[in-house]
Amino acid sequence: MTEQAPETVPTLEARVAKQKRIEGRNFYWPKFWVILAVCIMAILVAIFRGGARGIKSVIGVARCTGVDWGIFAIYVVLLSCLPFYSYWIIMREQKEKKAIGWNLDTRKSSSTASRL
Known about the structure:
Radius of gyration: 22 Å
Low-confidence stretches: none
Largest sheet: none
Oligomer: single chain
Mean pLDDT: 79
Order of helices and strands: HHH
Strand content: under 5%
């Protein structure tokens, strides 16, 4: 029988150091990729659907057909999911800050579900 290693729980110092690294970044990828995703999806939809009048679709989709509306519906659904992901990231980060006793400015209100 082999012994399983006990789960390692990060110490408070390690959690604070991780939060300092997150706060010190200009581009925090879990938040920044949302911006990139919106840009990339907009470009792809414009290419697949035919971006403007007179420009044909790269994949041969005619305007106002079922496939055209299907691509648009997928685009809308994906864009609709991004705010929920963003909300989840923010709330997870705020929960972690509260758990480690992050020194919040008393003049600022913290992000809560009712304040977002």
